[in-house]
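User: Um, what's this?
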Amino acid sequence: MAALLAGLPLALGTGFGSELRRPLGIAMVGGLLLSQALTLYTTPVIYIFFDNLSQRFAHKSKKRRTESAEEAAPA
C-alpha cells in the first residue's frame, strides 16, 4: 500500500517534467494493483486445488490398501 500511494504523485502529478514521470507512476500503480488483485484471487484457488488433490490421492491410497487387504485375506 505504501508503494502504491508513493506512486500516486508520479501518476497524477502536473507541472514541469511531469510528462516524463507520469508513465513511470502509471506503470507502478497499475502493476501494484494488478499483482495485488492476482495474488488475492489466485492464492486461495491454488490452496483449494492442492487440498482437493491431496484428498483425492488419500482416498485412492486408502481404497488400494483396503483392496489389497481383502485380496490377502483367506476366503
In short: The chain has a mean pLDDT of 87. Helices lie at 2-12, 18-72.
